[in-house]
Specification:
binds zinc ion; two-stranded antiparallel sheet; about 45% helix; 3 domains
């Protein structure tokens, strides 16, 4: 969250060089099978301000360089692939949601500033929720409501779900129609689950995985440093009292 822009750019590009694009499809239409319609409708989001636009104009956001071969013909609309790699992907994906297939086309691209905005938004939500509880007793009501307002900027899109029969019990099956929705939802569950191991270090404010319950620091050094600062502050306070 606090990385300087050049450093952040390097980190994100390194990630993409290694793993490829995530196929997030930021700004996802409300309907899962949006490609078969003439227009798409977008829920409130941080990226495209228009509520609706033609499907073609929407797709242009994610194919700014080369357009994929795409046949638009009502319910028979689909990606037209001829190269070997594309055919393998299309066959493997079968009935995958359209946004997933969209992100796997080789012409697919995502705006760098959108990705950064999405990642920064998650970091902000994560940090705000921890600071709110950590500082709750020392901040006034106005500051608390600022924190709450900050959290409400988190934009999560609901996935759909169905029920399936397993051997023992019926289970809920989530239908995520893009990677973005899945990450958003798992993140929301982790953030609100008090048994989650995801924590923010009390000293360096970085996220870490708490292996032991009640761990407040990412490592021993942060714990020591925090205690040193705290005892120094205490000493200063005592002197003032004298
Ligand atoms: Zn730390």
């Amino acid at each position: 969250m606090h990385k300087v822009p050049e450093e952040l750019r390097g980190t994100v590009l390194d990630f993409i060089k290694k793993y490829g694009f995530l196929g997030f499809v930021t700004a996802l239409p409300t309907t899962a099978d949006f490609i078969t319609y003439e227009s798409v409708y977008l829920p409130k989001n941080h990226f495209i301000k228009k509520k609706s636009l033609t499907t073609e104009n929407y797709l242009a956001y994610f194919y700014p360089f080369d357009k994929p071969d795409f046949r638009k013909n009502g319910v028979d609309s689909g990606w037209f692939v001829t190269d070997h790699e594309g055919i393998v992907i299309t066959m493997a994906m079968g009935n995958a949601p359209q946004a997933v297939a969209m992100g796997l086309q080789k012409e697919y691209a995502e705006r760098y500033d959108w990705l950064v905005k999405e990642f920064t938004g998650w970091a902000f939500t994560f940090m705000t929720s921890f600071l709110y509880h950590m500082d709750y007793d020392t901040i006034d009501e106005q500051t608390r409501s600022l924190y709450r307002l900050g959290i409400s900027a988190f934009g999560g899109i609901s996935p759909t779900y169905r029920i399936a029969l397993e051997k023992d019990l019926p289970v809920i099956v989530w239908d995520f129609h893009s990677l973005l929705i899945m990450v958003q939802m798992c993140f929301s569950f982790m953030l609100t689950d008090k048994d989650s191991d995801m924590r923010m270090c009390k000293h360096c404010k970085k996220a870490f995985d708490a292996s032991r319950k009640g761990n407040e620091f990412c490592n021993q050094r942060c714990k020591n440093q925090f205690n040193v600062y705290k005892s120094r502050e205490k000493k200063k306070g005592n002197k003032r009292d004298d």
